[in-house]
Amino acid sequence: MNQNPGVFGKKLGMTQIFGADGNVQRVTVVETGPLVVVGKRTQEKDGYSALILGLGERAERKVNKARAGAFKKANVTPKQHVKELRVAADFVAKYEVGATVKLDEIFTAGKFVDARGVTRGRGFTGVMRRWSFAGGVGSHGTHEYFRHGGSIGTNMTPGRTLPNLKMPGHYGAETVSVLGLKVARVDAEKNLLLIEGGIPGSKNSLVLIRQAVKKKTKNEK
User: Fold this and answer.
1) Domain for residue 219, yes or no?
2) What pairs with residue 41 in β-bridges?
3) Do 129 and 30 sit in the same domain of this protein?
4) Is residue 49 exposed (0-12), middle (13-18) or buried (19+ Cβ within 10 Å)?
5) For a disulfide at 63, which of 3, 78, 103, 144, Cβ 3.0-4.6 Å?
């Protein structure tokens, strides 16, 4: 489990910027704030360490009594999205309940991050789109079989369709992580994080961004 410091935010979409060398960089823009600490988990009290972060404002009339009481106890306004991130105890100790997490304290340009999001749902799809099958031949008298998957069973032994065969079905809408993406730019004032490459998820969907668990920059050991 990646327990490196991180944030979550809203994926605004993709654009392009020019790097210092003049080359075009394709980046994904993530709006990550302002993130407010609405709660903490400590090793002494809860058995693990974590930060509970809130993003976006929510009307008080749309919050149930249990959540409203938790926000009131933390002395913060109700938040639209709340997520708990497990991190190291020393990182939790840096923040008090009600504090705002600053983006430039966690990420800098050139660092590598891991991104996690829920892919776009495609509904019920066939094998050509879901599994990239080639499809059937398009000549020699073939008809009504161009996009089929071919044989799925056997003869008398075992006389049944084996499990886990690639077939049509629900495609997309699953959690996917992309590791080792590079941070192109950090705009702490506007709470924007620009990351090279694509991130799973549709526009305005929530994505989780953490410091990379595998890949490191050349200056790091």
Assistant:
1) no
2) 50
3) no
4) buried
5) 78
Domain span at residue 159 reads: 122-170
116 and 130 co-located in one domain: no
pLDDT the model gives residue 142: 87
Listed residue (6, 34, 41) closest to 99, CA to CA: 34
Nearest to 93 by CA among 52, 50, 53, 55: 50
Pair (98, 180) in one structural domain: yes
* Tally of domains within the chain: 2
Name which of 97, 115, 90 is nearest 177 in CA terms: 115
86 plus 192 within the same structural domain: yes
Per-residue pLDDT reduced to its tens digit, 24-62: 999 999 999 789 999 999 999 999 999 999 999 999 899
Helix/strand/coil percentages in the chain, nearest 5? 15, 40, 50
The answer to whether 92 and 53 have CB atoms below 8 angstroms apart is no
pTM (predicted TM-score): 0.85
Q: Is residue 220 part of a domain?
A: no
